[in-house]
What does this fold into?
Amino acid sequence: MQVIKISKAVFAFTILLWGFAAITASAVFAEENRTLELGKIVYEKHCVICHGEKGDGKGAFFAVVQEASLASGIYPRDFTIGVFRFRSTSTGCLPANDDLRRIISSGILRSHMPSHPDLPEAEATAVIEYVKTFFAEWGQMEPCKPIIAKKPAWLGMPDSVKKGEKLWKDMKCWECHGDMGKGDGPKSNQLKDDWGKQIVPYDFTSGAAKRGDAPEDIYLAYTTGLDGSGMPSYEDSMSDEDRWHLVSYTLKLMGLVK
Amino acid sequence: MKRILVSAVVLSMLFAATAFAYEVVDVKNGGSIKGKIKASAKVDDLVLTIDKDVEFCGKSQPARMYILSPALEVKNVLVFIEEVQKGKAAPKTDITIDNNKCVFEPLVGVAYKGANFVIKNSDNILHNTNLGLLLKDKRSTVYNLALPTKDQVITKPIRRGGLHAIKCDAHAWMRAYLFVADHPYAAVTDASGSFEIKDLLPGKYKVTVWHEGFAEVTKEVEVTAGKASDLSVTLSKK
It folds into this structure.
């Protein structure tokens, strides 16, 4: 008798649990829907003009850029292929939420992507979730660990600049970016991005970089690679220390240290 | 309590997700698809003009694109089934992609999700191996790795399925093609244009015949237990 009573209780409890689970599941989905609804509103207000209704980068501004035939490689990103440049994650990885958050708030100066520093936190979070929906595989791909850029105390010191100069040669950065970093190396004239359009290597003497020109940004650019642009990842081909010496040298190319 | 509920939700979502994954089963007395791929007319191979690192790579190179036998049988054609629900396990073999004398070895291959890309530079110059999914009028970068040093080897897990195109941004003429899947049902034709895909469960399959220089062909093939179904295709130049 006792046994039956208990199992009845267990049964009732299980049913109850499933009921709760169903309610929580629908609550989770409802919550998700609300986020996406808000994300869509934010997207349509701030992003659709460039990135397009389908997230394929073919917004109204796309036509304008084409007509004016501005410099090569400057057009809104197509989110549908799930390839992002300015990540803290390794090559082949999707960006972390914080990477997207940062792009949205500071913009990409060089590419006419505006900054949105005043976008409320909830709206920024929502638009990020909405942008993810343009790439069908997003949910299935395993998230990658962000790479932490921790600059050493000796960054920019003469000895480190000298080591960096040798690395610039040995690692063949000059082949694309040029001897003096002007973006005019022997391989610079035939580079194509994932959309088959011509792209030019960054000119270190020109000032503002796309992802930012703090030492950490320079370090991450060639550590992670700028996927989709032809700029490869050196994470597996250089030690962490060497990558920082190379930053020292790029600071010199940029005129920031002697 | 909350944690239990959340894990119940997560578990049911996981369950829903696995419903679409490839199911590995023991295939006994399966069927096969075999055949010969030919070209509709004779095509001469191309010669590629080289304008970067000429001292090392030479001034020109055979493209190895159209490798035809006198009977017009085509080598290096990929024959694959894009989606398979159920079948035998894919091998865990890694695929080596070598940058050797300014060409990728192999030019065409098959690789498996869950195994690794082993990328090697045998040359004394910078190569970068840029793997991407081949999509309609664009690609989607899967990995882009710099290999500035001779004999360098980089190993990366194979995570995405589909037809991959490999390029080297430093040398525009370099290219290779891989079909990647979570199942083993894909093949590359040999010098006599022949291929065989074995151990398929009986049923209907959509088979794609792909080559960089010919128009793609997709055919439905019916496979019966213990028998070989023929798939012989004549390709026309793109």
In short: The interface with chain A takes residues 4-6, 8-9, 12, 17, 52, 125-126, 128, 130, 132-133, 135, 137-149, 152, 154, 156, 159-160, 169-170, 172 of chain B (CB under 8 Å).
